[in-house]
Write a structure and sequence with these properties.
By secondary structure, the protein is an alpha/beta fold. 50% of the residues lie in helices and 15% in strands. Helix 2 packs across helix 3 and helix 6 packs across helix 7.
Length: 216
């Protein structure tokens, strides 16, 4: 099966995608990861991507679509994909739909994690990463303490773009660009709306039930 996972920044897509990958033996496809891999591997396309990003520009759909095509054409991943952060616009939706048909595949379901703006701001603005051990905490929901974190607090850092103004802009942009995509999958009866405000394990239980019903 192939699954698309939607949700605003900070909705917990990464956590849930990893749960799905581990439990259903799927391969996660993240547009951001694909771009970073090309840059880290110093490929020709990676150099082009790096140059685009350094100019503060968005990577063109053509480049992202080509990277997605490499995954879809790989028989190892046939009908075993979960898309996280792709498609981001209707043009990418149409490309994905076309390429899936070309390789005799289809989307089994689209999962949308719904979280309100206030919660998103707290989730992201409160996010802290330990530069020493890599653990991630949140000063509002899961603060670093001596019981759950052995490193000194001085190692906790906050991403520069994790500020309220940037977070709200990202949230509003997500809603504006993603609503037409969600409606596309809703019309195909593939969309499942999920309350992303619940606890992580509760959210995954709901997701797991949906996916399991598709396998039946």
């Amino acid at each position: 099966m192939n699954i698309i996972l939607f949700g605003p920044p900070g909705a917990g897509k990464g956590t849930q995608a990893n749960n799905i990958v581990n439990n259903f033996n799927l391969h996660k496809v993240s547009a951001g990861d694909l771009l970073r891999d090309e840059i880290e591997n110093n490929t020709d396309i990676g150099d082009k991507i790096k140059n685009i990003l350094e100019q503060g520009l968005l990577v063109p759909d053509e480049i992202i679509n080509d990277l997605i095509l490499k995954i879809l054409s790989n028989k190892k991943y046939f009908n075993r994909l979960i898309f996280d952060g792709y498609p981001r616009n209707l043009a990418q939706v149409e490309n994905l739909d076309s390429k899936l048909k070309k390789y005799n595949q289809k989307i089994s379901c689209a999962l949308s994690l719904n979280v309100d703006k206030e919660s998103i701001v707290k989730r992201i603005s409160g996010r802290q990463t330990c530069t020493r051990c890599g653990l991630i905490f949140n000063k509002y929901f899961n603060p670093s303490t001596k019981k759950n974190h052995s490193c000194d607090f001085k190692f906790l850092i906050k991403r520069l773009d994790d500020n309220n103004k940037t977070i709200i802009n990202r949230f509003d942009t997500y809603l504006k660009k993603t609503l037409p995509i969600i409606n596309f999958y809703k019309k195909q009866n593939l969309l499942h709306q999920i309350n992303g405000m619940k606890k992580i394990d509760q959210i995954y239980e709901e997701i797991q039930a949906i996916i399991t019903s598709l396998e039946a």
